[in-house]
């Protein structure tokens, strides 16, 4: 499954002359479902979309809060063209899930979002219709998200999930104490060694 997630100040969907739905500040999500997608892919995408930290906090710090933490809205639009494969210059959409299967699958994703978040803040377009999507991108901020593919063995999936959680925790932390201590030891052992930071050539410039 693929998604294009845009942080917006406002967004709306119009079919013909009728406006189907609109949101204020929040996220506009274009969602492309493939023939290989499963409920596991759907759950991954819902979790990521609702928890991506794309908004500032109350102190103005960027990339600190999710759409749920700010009580913002989400507009979802089914977008099978995200599953496009180019054959020369001609787009091929055979990897997209057929409409008769994709519609109930897409509806289940919306229901998952609504049960996880606030149902009145989750909006969508009109499945299968020719829509005009009006997006006022804020930033601009655009995130491309693809659900992971992997083994279906529950033990292996659990292992991968734990590894991913450890990676996310590591990224959110600064350098470890041991890393700083090792750097300090190297500096004491070789006073002329460069720290590796760009422009750190003071030892070469000294007479």
From TrEMBL:
Transmembrane segments: none
Listed GO CC annotations: cytoplasm
Family: Belongs to the DTD family.
GO molecular function: D-tyrosyl-tRNA(Tyr) deacylase activity; Gly-tRNA(Ala) deacylase activity; tRNA binding
The EC number(s) this enzyme carries: 3.1.1.96
Region (Disordered): 141-207
First-tier enzyme category under EC: hydrolase
Subcellular localization, as worded in the UniProt entry: Cytoplasm
Main location: cytoplasm
Bias-annotated ranges (Basic and acidic residues): 156-167, 178-189
PANTHER family: D-AMINOACYL-TRNA DEACYLASE 1 (PTHR10472:SF5), D-TYROSYL-TRNA TYR DEACYLASE (PTHR10472)
Pfam families: Tyr_Deacylase
Protein name (record): D-aminoacyl-tRNA deacylase
Gene coding for it: DTD1
InterPro entries named among the record's database cross-references: Daa-tRNA_deacyls_DTD (IPR003732), DTD-like_sf (IPR023509)
